[in-house]
Amino acid sequence: MASFKYGIKDLQDLVLCTFNNTTAPDIAQFVLPEYQEKFGGVNGLLDALNVRTEAGVSPSELNDRRQLYGVNKVEPEPQDPLWKLMIEAMKDPTLIFLTVAAFISLFIGIFIEQKPLGWLEGVAILSAVVVVVTVASVNDYQKEKQFRDLNAKKEDVQITVVRSSKTETVSTHDLVVGDVVMLSTGDILPADGVILGRNDLAINEKMLTGETVNKKKSPAYVIAGSKVESSPVLFAGTFVQEGEGRMLVVAVGENTYQGHMEAKMAEVESGRSILQKKLDNMTDLITNVSMYVSIALVLILMARMAYAFYAQKCCNEAWDHKVHWSELLGFLITGITIFVVAVPEGLPLAVTIALAFSVKKMLKDQNLVRHLSACETMGGATTICSDKTGTLTTSRMTVVKAWCGGTSYDSMKVLAAKVPAVKERFSTAGVVNTLFKTILKKNANGLITYCGNDTECALLIMAGELGHEYEKIRKSFPEAQEGRKGFSFSSDRKRMSTIVKIDGEETLFCKGAAEIVSAICTSYYGADGKVVPLDGTMRKQLDQTISDYADEGLRTLCIAERKVPGMADADLVVLESDLTLVGLVGIEDPLRAEVPGAIQDCLAAGICVRMVTGDNIQTARAIAKKCGIITDADGEGAVMDGKTFRERVTDSAGEIKQDEIDKIWPSLRVLARSTPLDKLVLVTGIQNSEIGIKQTVAVTGDGTNDAPALKQADVGFAMGIQGTDVAKNASDVIIMDDNFVSIVAAVKWGRCVYD
Fold first, then answer.
1. Residues 140, 387, 725, 732: which is the catalytic one?
2. Residue 387 annotated as catalytic
3. Do 349 and 706 touch, CB atoms closer than 8 A?
């Protein structure tokens, strides 16, 4: 067997260390001593794993690597058989109480009273128990099966690797530690690894960290002051938003960070639900009261009999064993009968049938309920802590506003109708300045998905809404067009430009930050398509529009052009001057149209909706206002950033200061720039609070990082489309369409059961 310097534990510790320490000080203190000094960076890992970048892994070592480091597959726990679910259901205290009462009733009816139908009541109680157990266990079995079908991975996901100096396509399940994987736009990372060599990768790690900003990658950490500009480690389950590069696999399957989290969540035992606790308390109450009443009644009857003997008032005859022992047994039977009669044998049956009915109805409303009791718990929810991206919003960057021809428009279709002379130029200018690897695809559900830069994808969508499909525009201006020349975006210039030929004449199209590009424009296209000088009045209007867009939390871009015949080789400063403004665009991840109404329904029902997001505080505030979570009347305490929240509610050891969180949560509506730990702390703090009524907290989440909060919540909602396996496994309900309105529908059905 081949030998390697590091074992599975060493590499797993490296992955966990890099994930848990992401700030510049933590990286310097904890990560660099491990990554650079112990492992020797990427070159040290290559040597330790016996891998050369250009050669990859030798096929003869594949089995050895699998035996030592594991396979790239997390085997799900086998589904519990129906009989096991039935046994679990029978452990419910209420059902145990009913079963004991049924057998006592059968014994008395058959062997003591010996009446013709003495067995009837006992059989009736047992029948109710059987129905409850059957309905609950069959429902759980079916829903778990549906969940596994929903969560099933495709068995034949192919990826390109380098082996024996050749590139070949293999299944992700065949990856081994040491493989060199070729990554490109649209790939989902199949394992944990480190980046090899130069690359232009931008990795979307939202499903792991909750952050929406794409991360740059490099073979070594690049830190500028307190900012981490790029890092070397990549994590399984994250998404290549754009770019190409190569990765050295260092952890697969259960040893990846995602696999580690999944195993950790499997170890956490879920407590009993609110409904189960209520039934347990009611069972204890009925058991105690009926027992004390029965004992008291038997004692009273015996005392009455003893007094009658003593006073010679009724029983003058001597003690007769046959008569009086039978009479005493009758007293005991009377007490037991009262105990049995007090049993509410119909209650568990009624509750179970109501829950099962609600589960079926909720599935039609895009809610897959994994645990029956979650229905009733949701009905009692007082707080919903919701994600922003994908739940309140569409999770697709979109041009929601545009300025063209001197007027701002809220709809691209209206713009196309009002400014027909400029719409084609607007579309062309937007599409030409996008990378050819930025494309739109349709997924298995027929929905459009973005591949590449999400801002550029928004411009492609805009072109289609203006009546000009981006594919046709790209065919008119192919990447290999003679004379085509591109000037890529840079953080200094804050813009990019492309020169193409239109009717044989070179034209430069420029796209960039609105305030930067508009400043180098000297004219603009009027609504009639004619070029108009950009005078002081119009520039003031333009600046105000840019300011208004920014106040609404929009990402604002300016699109301009200039005819540059014979100037293609001129200095870039000269080329990017004296531009003609084509239009402004305001881009955001727009609010779902139905969300504001759904949030008003929640508020009317006494449910407080809180938004917990990784976005910056300005964007979070703007979205929260649009959907009605906050209003102008709300004070400063309604919106808070994660750093301030952490500093106030946790001590140096990370423990929650309940007195401090009690000062914050009643007025808090938006938590921005939050981490997964912030969400967990908020949920736990609200649950443990003794202010007002006891809070029942529902939480939504889609990432692996959300799993602890989903598990901690009274009801956890995972996203069915964007949600990771770990999040779904930690949840009680799967939202099939990732829509907040579906959560409101779950509340409505829960109220039906709750009431």
1. 387
2. yes
3. no
